[in-house]
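Reviewers of the previous submission asked for a worked example of the structure-prediction workflow described in the proposal, so we include one complete record here. The input consisted solely of the amino acid sequence. No template or homolog information was supplied to the procedure at any stage.
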Amino acid sequence: MKIALVLPGGVDRGGEERVIPVFLALIARMARHHDVHVFALHQETRPGSWPLAGATVHNVGAGRTVWRAIQAIRAEHRQGAFHVVQAIFSGHCGLIAVVAGRWLGLPSLVHIAGGELVALHAIDYGGRRKCRSRLREAVVLRAARVVTAASAPLLHSLRELGIAARRVPLGVDTQAWAPLPPRARTGGSARLLHVASLNRVKDPSTLLRAMRKLVDTGVEFDLRVVGVDTLDGEIQRLARSLDLEEQVSFLGFRTQRELRPLMASADLLVMSSLHEAGPLVLLEAAVAGVPTVGTAVGHMAEWAPTAALAVPPGDADALAAAVATVLGDDELRLRLAREAQRLALAEDADHTAACFEALYEEVLRG
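From that input alone, the workflow returned the following structure tokens.
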């Protein structure tokens, strides 16, 4: 089978930085049995092509990206016919997939993987904030042969829009991220970890306000924050103003190789996002034997209360209370970790690839 996979990016030539690990895992698995061509919209500003994980990446580059991506798919189709066109993320990726699919007479599939279905006006985020983008999504989601999404909250949002969709979680590559058994705490300060870019959607200010409340109630902890800073030092300044410099350290970007030991040494992952399709880091933590306390979005909403504890987004008091509850009851923490690991291993990267391949066979038969 020849597959056109449309992605926004996350497929850098080096395979370490500027990559999205779940994309690499999916590409590598599909490329074992199929001829996979990845059309990346914004990996580099200039057009280019390179091999990655057994596939061929076609970087579209800046300037008339949507039109040139459609033309690039069409040109490769002439070299050897595609069977399906798959977009990970809707938006421009989904538009490219359905237009190219219609033009070439191919089935197109669109996977919801971000904020395509939300409108968070307070932080200027989401694909449903503006009339133009709402119209585009309506066209794309109805034109796609199959729509998929990573978690139950996204499926619920799609049903409210009248879109029938399938659940396909984007799972962890357990060959690169080997499972570790959940571990009892050894005493001393709790080792907390937060892994996400510092941006408005991840709501790190609520995270820090929750940490301040933990300090005020006498909970001893060390929080490591991993992720690219997109807010120009605002969150670091907030940490100083909250007098959290002893408890919170900002580590910046870390590759998967560098993140692994940080995760393995953590007692708890803490997430404060306003919206998530997943997130993948929750699944990575679960595979590493680490449970999560976070906001009720994405998989955190799906898994609570048996495999994670979830609180309303933006509620620092509730987040602090949930973290304190888990840190104060190690049997609860281990119980959450074991169930989270069971769920994450059942829906790993092999499962993801198998789900997509089964969908491709289904639409081709149809």
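The chain has two domains: 2-171+348-365, 190-346. We consider this example representative of the routine output the project will generate in years two and three.
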